[in-house]
Amino acid sequence: MHSQSAHNTDTAGLYTAEQRIRRDESVWTVIQGILAPLQFLVFLVSLALVLRYLWNGAGYEAATLSVVIKTAVLYLIMVTGAIWEKVVFGQYLFAPAFFWEDVFSFAVIALHTAYLWGLFAGALAPVPLMFLALAAYAAYVINAAQFLLKLRAARLQAQSDHIRPKEVSA
User: Fold this and answer.
1) Which comes out higher in pLDDT, residue 137 or 12?
2) What is the 8-class DSSP label of residue 8?
3) At CA 62, angle to CA 58 and CA 66, rounded to 5?
4) What is the DSSP secondary-structure string of 40-101?
């Protein structure tokens, strides 16, 4: 069926008008806005510790703890992000606007979880564990770039919506 209500005609952009309002009014948007840079900061510290360990063999415990903390923050942002998607788009994951970001997020989570498994099961030695952490971090960087591109698209949509003259119905 092709008919849409007048308040839901902006489907070309990332958000409909109603979704934008829900996004802007949701506490989960604020939470994501706090957790995303926090996760990036944790990532940078952890990356430095992992690279230090791989470079000179020092600080295995600190590097390990940092990867565990990074993984915990990743899980937290994934859960709160799913709640945010439910509030804004009406479904917990794989909303059309964020489908590929969510798909890739699962790859990121799988790699981080594989690290935890390797660590706690004793299945991997320290150096392979750290290389697995680097693989997880590379995937995280790609996923973070996906979300940054969506944030930019949302800002561009908001600017064009603000500039676009309002349609007048007769």
Assistant:
1) 137
2) G
3) 135
4) HHHHHHHHHHHHHHHHHS--HHHHHHHHHHHHHHHHHHHHHHHHHHHHHHSSSS--GGGHHH
Report the chain's C-alpha Rg in angstroms: 20
Least confident stretch, 27-41, 104-118, 155-169: 155-169
Q: Minimal CA–CA distance to 38: which of 46, 48, 49?
A: 46
- Which residues of 94-143 form beta strands (DSSP E)? none
Residue-wise pLDDT for 14-58, tens only, equals: 888 899 999 999 999 999 999 999 999 999 999 999 999 999 999
pTM: 0.82
Distance of CA 87 to the CA centre of its chain: 16
The answer to whether 94 and 102 have CB atoms below 8 angstroms apart is yes
